[in-house]
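Closing statement on the uridine-diphosphate-N-acetylglucosamine sub-project.
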Amino acid sequence: MSERSLLIVALAAGKGTRMKSAVPKVLHQVGGRSLLGHVLSAASAAGADKLAVVVGPGMEAVGVEAGRFVPGAATFVQERQLGTGDAVLAARAAIESHRGDVLVVLGDTPFLTTETLVKARRALAGDAGIAVVGFEARDPTGYGRLLQDGDGSILAIREEKEATDAERSIRLCNSGVIGFRSERMFEILSAIRNDNAKGEYYLTDAIEIGRSKGVRAVAVLGDETEMLGINDRAQLAAAERIFQDRRRADFMADGVTMIAPETVYVAYDTVIGRDVVIEPFVVLGPGVSIADNVHVKSFTYLVGKDAKSDKGIVLGDESEIGPFTRMRPGTTVGEGAHVGNFVELKNSTLGPGAKASHLAYLGDGRVGAKANIGAGTIFCNYDGYNKHVTEIGEGAFVGSNTSLVAPVRIGAGAYVGSGSVITRDVGPDALALERAKQEERPDWARKFRQVMARRKSAKS
Ligand code: UD1
Ligand code: MG
């Protein structure tokens, strides 16, 4: 890879009016990650040393998101949207102080690949001062067209509005990703004028201006799907479809069985091992890692990272999950453990071979190896102010319909009788019972029926 330092300038000032959203467009998600996050992770894999994000007024959240991918990312506000050329100049301070390559990317193109960015950098390492990422568009309408000369240079990018009919028939289009060597960049950008049909400062004018100053521009090619930009919710859904299809295909190629892949949802960071079987209708949100030989049954819903926690979910070898299991962040399931229907786990660890087969809430718990959690068990972890831990020792047996009021510990090998409300620790191998003594009144029911029947007939 190039030794030259890389600055990425990501344009994200667009309000995305067609999204009809209070959330900036680039923060909408595909595969559980923001559009901007997809772009920036490709950019940082391409070796970005510095990042400048150009946002609109009031879009601080975009800067925060950018900082997650490139620590120290700088945010620049473009006060009014006067065009892409003006947008890049909003990041003037970052550009002027940078020596090396600068890649301008658009924040709403989630499928942009690292390979394409690397290609643009390679072109800049040669004799080109500008590298434009182009693609062959099936339908070029609306895109800027690349005008080439015979020797592989680009003469200009012509925007649709200014193009002649002949130019409009060109299918080689500008993706919006343009790389510059920093040396002449600022000088070139400063020369851009807004004397065009839209009255905008076109970044694309940089090609002709550069040429007039002896700076050569070349095109590198990417794939059309890479350039897909999101402008409305239908395009967002279309992008999600593309993302899911690709990821599922990758998993299947790597040895995962999906019985009905079109019904399984995965996230950008999902990890799935070999010989895992995933039944229909399973949702794997962000932060889920599945070892080998795991069986995930239908209607399982696992989210390992959310707004409050990024602790993740790990499913151990040969574990069995579902149907209808829910897991939240911080869940670890040991080897060969079973979690069944209507069981919810949050911030809890199940030891190897442990079982929670039906109807339970395990929050902030540590369950030892081979322990058995009966149906209807609740770890009462929250007192309205704080969360507390429930510990279940190895091989312990918690009877059905038990409430364990945390903080509380059940010793290894202990039994807890069904229906108990356990508030104090239980020693190893003990039996704990917390329920009223059973009473029996012989013949009571028969007499009750006689009395009631007599009363009813006296009334009528
Ligand atoms: C732009 C390119 C065009 C290319 C196309 C690819 C220019 C002049 N044209 O056209 O050659 O084929 O992208 O999709 O560059 N933005 C700002 N501030 C502004 C204007 C735009 O941040 O003042 C951002 C937008 O949020 C958007 C991006 O820049 O993410 C591109 O702007 P847009 O107006 O969509 O340009 P296009 O007309 O699509
Ligand atoms: Mg556009």
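The first helix runs from residue 35 to 45. With this model delivered, the sub-project is considered complete and its resources will be redirected to Aim 3.
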